[in-house]
Amino acid sequence: MDPADFDTALLDPTRLSIVSLLAGVEWAEFGWVRESVGMSPSALSKQIGTLEARGYVEVEKGYVGKRPRTWINLSPAGRAALEAHVTALRRVVEEAQRTAGQRDS
Question: Are 40 and 80 in contact (CB under 8 A)?
């Protein structure tokens, strides 16, 4: 297994949780993401900033009535990075199972 197969940004469990959550929705509200991943607003903002800098998420700010809101969307680059990272993880699991099966034989 080549370590280069893994996305370094997604090795962090928090960021992996965020992009995994966003993969199933379109334009999630910041508060919902925060509650879903169990983070403080400032911690989530920092992680979203890291993902945005890599081009993995898109962030839109606006208002609902007079209340400010932030929405987050997984970008096509973020979706591709998640899929590649998950594929690499699956290869690790498959190799471990194959190795375990050879020992049992």
Answer: no
